[in-house]
Amino acid sequence: MKIVIYGLGYKGREFIRIVYEILKEIEIVAVTDTYVQAMDSLIYDNTLYIKPTQIKDYEYDYIIVTPENYYCEIRNSLVEYGVDYRKIRSLNEFELNRKKFQCNICGNEIFAWNYIGEDYKIFHNKDIAGAGRRRGGCPVCGSSDRARFVYYVIENFTKLLKESNCNVLHFAPENAILKKLRSMYGEQYISADIMPGRADVVADITSLQFNDEQFEYIICNHVMEHVYEEKKAFSEIRRCLRKGGILIFTAPICWTQETYEDDIVTTADERIRCYGQEDHVRLYGKDIVGRIEKFGFDVDLLYCNKMKIKDKIQKFGFLQDDSVLLCKRNN
Ligand SMILES: [Zn+2]
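ok -> structure tokens follow
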């Protein structure tokens, strides 16, 4: 089948992407008035980009008009160009176009999530939550399913987004969350990463440059499984948190076993096999709550599937077995 897609705004580009994913045997001709925009969206080498006046030179089965608000005008002008009106379709007619999802961070309605993540065998063998190749990325702000769930927890189970005066430290920041917090807290929000150039400051989580009790909130997602000196890291986080301050924490967790770490696991291959990633140094397990409590926190485990938010899991594209730990510095 050969189709012409008219209009390469966000909807048109999304539509092309979805069509290619679903229908392998398809040829697409994309029509755009603004050639520059088309060049930007040249994601697919096999798409041919043409101008509206060139349509008459091509054979096709359908023309799908993607700017819904201008459907009538575009349809009329196509008929004037000599296009058979029976071949013209609006995007509305396609099931694919039904907006099923919404990103709870950027607020945009989404047709389909982007593919994200790597597919190592261990993710299936050990049922590790929050990992593996899946449809989970927001095509607008880039947030992952995990980031959206973290944000959901922040929004509904902490006061972080409701307080006006707050000092926040965010390790290995998720971009979409960073933007939100930066716009709220400005300089009071500090992003940190061990790699230069990735965040506001370079920081080693096992030896932090910040003052005692400097922060009300510290956010640390999918970092600790990379940190060999876990105890030192938690003690530094605790030191920099105000009493009663909250650590928002996530990591890959395997709920069917205890936390596993072993000094003999050193090579990249072994680490992938045992922990799920070549640069991980442990795989957290079902003992994670008690494990973090031992470092001086009261831990509240928010497990997505047990939160009675089925509609939101579907709508916001969370992972059912995802979890966030809210860890309160206890004295
Ligand atoms: Zn988004």
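The chain has a mean pLDDT of 87.
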